[in-house]
């Protein structure tokens, strides 16, 4: 996915630089739909569509992490990865990132039952997210961990998103965006661990190419989700059958 095979193997610092270069070129903060979201150029219905479709991604992250957790060979690795499940699923009803995302969709005026039913998803959202879960389930542990390295770049996009949405949308409040504050500390903690693991374990040309391809794949998943939103909700008349349709203004 990333071009010609590497030769000879990169040093750990060179590998990290190559991973960061993928994020600089391909992370979805560059996508036109995200730029519009942050800059206040979307209407309420378009923001609702984004939040509803993104819910599927958020809700499947714990399932993705559970598939990897079951394959990790040591208690140390399992303890580390188990924190991600707690971060997203919480340790009691109404806690965790998925519950906070539902507060976001509540705050945007979406019916919680409709969001949780997943009936309004864009087909491309479902396909992209399911492909990511399958990737983590089926690929090597090294590739699965490397695919999480989009978290290296998430604090920047979160800061932009919160500031931009609060500035531009009168229907958004700090309480609506409560999901994002914990991620400013969780994501760097998780990405520090994943990056250290990849630096230590990706030693051969083949392993290094695999981790670069894994991060590229994950960036493509996130980018394709925004492509689908842009096509369906920014270009008029392109909402596919069965997908979320905003109420008339």
Structural class, by secondary structure, is mainly alpha
Mean pLDDT: 94
Q: How many strands, which pairing sense, and closed or not: the largest β-sheet?
A: none
In angstroms, what is the radius of gyration?
Answer: 18 Å
Q: Tell me the overall shape.
A: globular
- Can you write the helix and strand succession as a string? HHHHHHHHHHH
CATH class, named Mainly Alpha
Helix content: 55-70%
For this structure, the CATH topology is Heme Oxygenase, Chain A
Number of helices: 11
Organism: Gluconacetobacter diazotrophicus (Acetobacter diazotrophicus)
Domain Thiaminase-2/PQQC: 17-227
Family: Belongs to the PqqC family.
GO biological process, one term: pyrroloquinoline quinone biosynthetic process
Describe this structure in words.
The protein is mainly alpha-helical and 249 residues long. It has a single domain, classed as Up-down Bundle (Heme Oxygenase, Chain A). It contains eleven helices and no strands. The radius of gyration is 18 Å and the shape is globular.
Task: For the structure shown, list the relevant keywords.
11 helices; 0% strand; Heme Oxygenase, Chain A; globular; 249 residues; mainly alpha
Short description:
The chain is mainly α and 249 residues long. The chain is built from 11 helices and no strands.
What order do the helices and strands come in, and which of them pair?
Blueprint: H1 12-26, H2 32-38, H3 44-69, H4 75-89, H5 97-107, H6 112-117, H7 123-138, H8 141-147, H9 154-168, H10 180-201, H11 205-234
